[in-house]
Amino acid sequence: MNWANGEVVGSETVSLEGGESGTVEFIFEPDESGEYELAIDDETTTLTVEDGLPWWIWLIVLIAIPLLFLLWKRRGDEEDEETEFDGSDPIK
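Above: the chain sequence. Below: its structure as tokens.
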């Protein structure tokens, strides 16, 4: 049985012949942040779940915002150049 903070989160029975090995995968997705003590048979470990976005998401946002601003500003400057009137007659 697999335990997280004293609550059973999964159970699976696997039969192996002598000398065989196998892999059993369990997925545990906690709903809240905090520390969870996980146990599989006699083995235990601690899982720490944190709130918030990963640091690399913030890095992408911090790079993307100034780039988008520069593109928007550049587009506005190009539109201003196209609408300038120099007083000459374009049809001659």
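The chain is about 30% helix and 25% strand.
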